[in-house]
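SAMPLE LOG
Freezer: B-3
Tube label: C17
Construct: single chain, 506 aa
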Amino acid sequence: MTVVRLAAVAVLAALAVSQTGVAGPAWARAAADPLETAFAEAAAARDVPRDLLVAVAYAETHLDGHGGAPSASGGYGVMHLVGNPTTHTLERAAELTGEPVARLRADTAANVLGGAAVLRALADEQGLDAAARKDVARWYTTVAEYGNASTPEVARLYADTVYELLGTGFRAAGVTVAPREITVDRGPYARIQDLNARGSGFRAASADYPGAAWVAANSGNYTGANRESSHRIDRIVIHVTQGSYAGTISWFQNPSAKVSAHYVVRSSNGAVTQMVRDKDIAWHAGNWNYNTRSIGIEHEGFVSDASWFTDAMYRSSAALTRYLCDKYGIPKTRAAIIGHKEVPGADHTDPGSHWNWSRYMGFVTGGGNPSWSATVDNTTAGRFTASAAWGTSAYSGQRHGADYRFTAPARTSDPAWFRVKIPSAGTYRVDVWYPADPGYNSAAPYIVAASGGNKTVYVDQRAGGGTWRSIGTFSLAAGDRDVVGVSRWTSGAGQVIADAVRITRT
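STRUCTURE (predicted):
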């Protein structure tokens, strides 16, 4: 088996050389790596685009199989093959591949092949022929189905997450996906609301926390109450989801879960979804007394993997906790803001050793963190430049400030530039803000003037607007200069938007 696998990868690498005249793509050059090998073989065997397969895995697990341990919803391996009372991706993978369930749970290569097999089966059911399967943009509805989401809105959230990753690119566990221009066909999901976007019905549904979307958990997963009349709220409990943001929202809507939390916080941009009203009792602490007196906040990720605990997540969650403390008179101390593992009788370890309590509590109390941050809007004096080809609009209520800039795509870069004074050389996270609209660009090129040369990532501005969105972490040199540009040179359809950027030292 090992010989066959290595031979298959060698053939793929050889094809890459013969067709391009160079040493082939990164995955071919690094085929000796077991995880790279697993993705390359599975993609070839099931005719699934390799980068799509990796992006699905990254969205689910950051390419960490967690030693065969299950997620909160019963998902296994880097592909998060799920086996629970209502979802049977794991069992379907076993049927499609002939691999035993035990091996699919524990063996990474088998797990990746199982995920590819399920994706291909879903693609076949949706009528993707051989030609369509070569186009990664045609897989959107297949990806949405793979996520086994509880509602069409959560299915769109799941698929958009995967395609955002394809646009920005990423590297994890030695595996690389390069940024790409991509115009996806969302099919029926194009009519579905963007869950966390400003102006969506979910944001307008009067969540208890003004910054949250409202998506109700299943009524069988919490207890209706009238806090604080019936019980005083004097604790906040910090959790880690052991799963993805979309997957956790789906799980709390699943009647078989018998678990919930009041809030869920996303890793990439700190988006917040409320699922149980503050007045009601979420089933999150594993201790009825603590359930009745606390608010539970779940954070996307896994206890064993620090990569999920981003600056955006810490800041957003801390702002939520600070708001709740002020609202309910909860002390902003570690005695009142606790981890799940600190609940009496708890058998959980979250948030775990990778959670930075000092940093988090600094944000909660307002002491903050020494990390530097700067925000530049298109109206910031002396900090934004654009040619006459860039018009000005205040059409969208999702804009960052008074207005934003727009232009038509063209075969010329003609970038709009945001100028930032970087205080010292280091690693910085770049967030962008833009209003979203179906008529805006499907692959807007953001240029980051990074150390070692410009880096370009592509953002679908038809979705995900009205909030900060991370486009990655970059090495930046010190100095006052143009740091982030928005180019017109794209094959994407629709107006290119330049609104605001935020640079934060990590």
